[in-house]
Backbone:
């Protein structure tokens, strides 16, 4: 499990040495390349890895799991359940969590672009002749990667761990070789060099923080992927493999700059001399593809969670592995992401330009994670207030310093992830609010189910053979589909089931708690079906569990009645008209409920209902 975690979890942060040091000493930052600054920067990088990744994420945040699952969406669900829906903090925390999730989507766009682009730029170090081919080769590799997504990663995924182990051993080996050449770089392990660097350079050092944060990209991924591997393997992979390799390589790059300042143009590819450039390009290309794959898979997982928690409309989700429930493919997300990643590569053209855009997405998500973690440990774990404030405010100050440094780059590319985040935030908030308006509208006209059944069976309609399952939302009255059926067909099936699906803010609901059935009399039943945000919602499969309630469903004799809502935007109430129109568009293009819940298409009867918001 630790080997697998090395391959999937640490691909993003593991490829940061490709571009981080080059960006810190970029001419745009105006940071002089001298021994004091090199020691200061390396000290800042090493201690940032210790404080932010080792202490904040690996030690603290990994403990804030939602029944074993991590990631900003799982943390948001845990936070909201900790404070309760009646709390005055509920909506502000919802907004913070959605902002963090929206920026994580932006991070998912930039990671494949900057990683693969920086690997291809190694060819420029070998010979400037390759410069015109860097962007086309990057686009070719990324297109191939996205084309492969529909086949899943079950087959090639087993190689990710061994390949990334080779990568980290290569990082450590190159670092040791350069440390031997310049052992004085080991002085950077003393944090005083970081403080002196910040004090002596002030404004320039603050600007350089925006590049130092590039060494921390991927920290959020180790939390998001915790559910796949468990807390212990993720921690072991960090402390015994990833962190030592990264620290050694950054120290090695610092040592290289001490005795060869000319290598500052691209220190990573010049660590071992000219002979190593092509092998390093090949190895780094494979490593960045693996890092990109982890980000793409993470985006699928995040989207699935957002759909289940009611932040995004239903989409087609393809299970690519019969053994791994987390192996999914979402065609719409795949090609939207490919389009925006390709646009980013073409528009920015180099890893240097993309680096300006990268940090603000990462640091924004980090701040959201810190804030949500405070509420979990305070209201969920009931820790002492002073301890909670001390623990999280320390990390908040660090996160905010990195965020503020990156905010200076808004005009130079930082606007890109902010724009992506704003679009995603608007979509998620609009969908959530739109669903609330639809539910409120339906609730106004709802007829209590029990009262309706009492009056219906006072003069019962004709009963026909078979089973009718009417989909009924949580808190709804009589399903509109049933009213339409009685109005037009004037009949009722022998067995009537009102089915309500509940999506809970926990990752998994065990099969033993999947369904509950309540007898309403007259051979009518209320069935409640429960799923977590990582469960696969499969209604026919869950119906098999009803045998314990002496109900047996033959699919060829069972009809599913679903009300398809035709939502109409009306000015003057609810949301702004443009948001209502956006919601209507998403609602019309959402995957239909029957398909999402895996109900056989030939057993579905859809009846329309009009809803104004």
Residues:
């Amino acid at each position: 499990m630790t080997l697998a975690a090395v391959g999937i979890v640490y691909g993003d942060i593991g490829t940061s040495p490709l571009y981080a040091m080059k960006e810190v000493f970029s001419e745009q930052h105006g940071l002089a390349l001298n021994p004091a600054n090199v020691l200061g920067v390396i000290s800042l990088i090493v201690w940032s890895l210790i404080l932010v990744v080792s202490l904040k994420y690996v030690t603290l945040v990994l403990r804030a799991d939602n029944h074993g699952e991590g990631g900003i969406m799982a943390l948001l669900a845990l936070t909201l359940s900790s404070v309760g829906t009646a709390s005055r903090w509920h909506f502000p925390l919802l907004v913070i969590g959605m902002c963090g999730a929206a920026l994580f989507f932006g991070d998912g766009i930039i990671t494949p672009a900057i990683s693969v682009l920086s690997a291809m730029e190694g060819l420029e170090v070998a010979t400037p002749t390759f410069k015109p081919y860097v962007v086309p080769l990057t686009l070719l590799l990324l297109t191939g990667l996205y084309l492969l997504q529909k086949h899943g990663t079950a087959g090639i995924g087993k190689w990710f761990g061994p390949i990334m182990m080779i990568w980290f051993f290569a990082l450590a080996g190159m670092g040791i070789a350069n440390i031997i050449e310049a052992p004085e770089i080991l002085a950077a392990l003393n944090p005083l060099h970081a403080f002196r660097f910040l004090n002596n350079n002030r404004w320039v050092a603050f600007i350089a923080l925006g590049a130092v944060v590039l060494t921390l990209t991927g920290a959020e991924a180790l939390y998001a992927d915790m559910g796949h591997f468990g807390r212990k393997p993720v921690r072991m992979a960090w402390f015994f493999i990833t962190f030592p390799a990264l620290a050694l390589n950054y120290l090695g790059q610092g040592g290289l700059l001490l005795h060869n300042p000319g290598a500052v143009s691209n220190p990573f590819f010049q660590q071992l001399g000219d002979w190593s450039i092509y092998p390093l390009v090949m190895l780094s290309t494979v490593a960045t593809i693996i890092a990109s794959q982890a980000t793409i898979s993470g985006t699928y997982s995040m989207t699935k969670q957002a759909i289940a928690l009611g932040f995004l409309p239903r989409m087609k989700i393809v299970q690519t592995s019969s053994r791994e429930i987390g192996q999914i493919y979402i065609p719409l997300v795949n090609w939207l992401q490919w389009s925006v990643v390709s646009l980013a590569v073409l528009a920015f053209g180099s890893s240097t330009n993309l680096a300006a855009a990268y940090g603000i997405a990462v640091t924004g998500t980090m701040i959201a994670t810190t804030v949500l973690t405070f509420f979990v440990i305070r209201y969920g774990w009931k820790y002492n207030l002073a301890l909670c404030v001390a623990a999280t405010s320390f990390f908040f100050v660090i996160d905010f310093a990195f965020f503020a440094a990156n905010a200076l780059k808004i005009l130079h590319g930082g606007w890109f992830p902010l724009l992506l985040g704003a679009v995603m935030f608007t979509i998620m908030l609009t969908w959530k609010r739109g669903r609330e308006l639809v539910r409120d509208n339906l609730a106004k006209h709802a007829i209590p189910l029990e009262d309706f059944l009492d009056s219906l069976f006072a003069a019962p309609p004709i009963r026909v053979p078979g089973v009718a399952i009417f989909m009924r939302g949580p808190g709804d009255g009589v399903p509109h589909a049933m009213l339409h059926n009685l109005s037009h067909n004037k009949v009722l099936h022998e067995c009537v089931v009102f089915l309500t699906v509940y999506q809970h803010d926990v990752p998994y609901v065990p099969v033993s708690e999947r369904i509950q059935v309540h007898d309403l009399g007259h051979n009518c039943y209320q069935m409640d079906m429960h799923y977590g945000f990582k469960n696969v919602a499969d209604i026919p499969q869950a119906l098999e569990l009803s045998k314990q309630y002496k109900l047996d469903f033959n699919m060829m004799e069972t009809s599913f009645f679903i009300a398809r809502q035709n939502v109409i935007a009306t000015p003057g109430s609810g949301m702004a008209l443009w948001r209502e129109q956006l919601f209507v568009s998403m609602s019309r293009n959402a995957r239909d409920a029957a398909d999402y819940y895996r109900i056989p298409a030939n057993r579905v009867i859809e009846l329309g209902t009009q809803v104004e918001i």
Remarks:
- The mean pLDDT is 86.
- The beta strands are 318-319, 328-329, 462-471, 491-503, 515-521, 524-531, 558-568, 604-612.
